[in-house]
Amino acid sequence: MKLFAIFGNPVSHSVSPLMHNFAIKNFSLDACYTRYLLEDGEKLRECFFALNLSGVNVTVPHKEAAFKACDEVRGIAKEIEAVNTIVKEGDRLIGYNTDAPGFYESIKEFEAKKVLILGAGGTAKAISLYLRTKGFDVTILNRSRERLSFFKDKGFKVFSWEDFEISSFDMIVNTTSAGLENDSFPVKEEILRELFKEASYCVDVIYNKNTPFLNLAEEFSLKKKDGKEMLLYQGVIAFEYFFSHSFSKEEITENMLKAFE
């Protein structure tokens, strides 16, 4: 039997096991997908082999550690320097990033061009770089300047809370964990209120929870989405990697959607 897992901290909330196991069951595969609380990202590679996994998805806060743990990184993950999907080939770990195309699939219906991304972690890297390849004008806002150097080096407009100058954006995207386990905002509430006055769309990568960020967006009648569709689409692409593209996207999507019913 092949064993797959999701690594993260926290990870108990993850719907990924349901999604993947629904597909595994319906395709009659000899496999199973579980979750694993990984507290130390430096031990990711060690845990992968100790658990005898065939593949793993990686969620916050270990996507950059996953990049370093791989023997080879393919596709846009090389530029992003963040990995959320790892597949074992022989004794080598091959890394991919399915967050980027997964996010784009979830928001491509939105008529947005100017995007403000809140946060500067692995998910922000994935989304920003991929959106730029699709013609979006992307700006990054993070609490501190320490993690902004990656984005600045890539040519993005970057701001910390201290030097941010409020301007007009079509879409505001929260990539931080703010609101996942508490009632915090990803940026000061007064800043969000000013941003939402001018925005049309609001996306939180956190899923299955109406976060304070999304609740505030309702006050301004913004079109909004949580991270459910991003999770679905990135999971479909990861499943393709796990099982060597043996099934169509349509078949995988149909099976994984059952996890949200």
Considering the chains and any ligands shown, give keywords for the structure:
Rossmann fold, 37% helix, alpha/beta, six-stranded mixed β-sheet, 21% strand, 261 residues, 2 domains, six-stranded parallel β-sheet
Characterize this entry briefly:
Helices cover about 35% and strands about 20% of the residues. The chain has helices at about 15-25, 45-50, 65-70, 75-80, 100-105, 120-135, 150-155, 190-200, 210-220, 230-240, 250-255; strands spanning about 1-10, 30-35, 55-60, 70-75, 85-90, 90-95, 115-120, 135-140, 155-160, 170-175, 200-205, 225.
Q: Could you describe the 3D structure shown?
A:
With 261 residues, this protein is of the alpha/beta class. It folds into two domains: 2-97 and 229-260, Rossmann fold; 101-226, NAD(P)-binding Rossmann-like Domain (Rossmann fold). It is built from eleven helices and twelve strands. It has a six-stranded mixed β-sheet, with helices on both faces. Strand 7 (114-118), helix 6 (122-133) and strand 8 form a beta-alpha-beta unit.
The chain-level structural class is alpha/beta
| Architecture per CATH nomenclature, i.e. the level-2 architecture of the largest domain | 3-Layer(aba) Sandwich
What is the topology, as strand order, of the major beta sheet? 2-1-3-5-6-4
Tell me the overall shape: globular
Residue-averaged pLDDT = 95
One letter per element, helices H and strands E, the order comes to EHEHEHEHEEHEHEHEEHEHEHH
- CATH level 4 superfamily of the largest domain: Leucine Dehydrogenase, chain A, domain 1
Oligomer classification: single chain
Q: Could you name the CATH topology of the largest domain?
A: Rossmann fold
Give the strand content: 15-25%
Using only CA atoms, what is the Rg? Answer: 18 Å
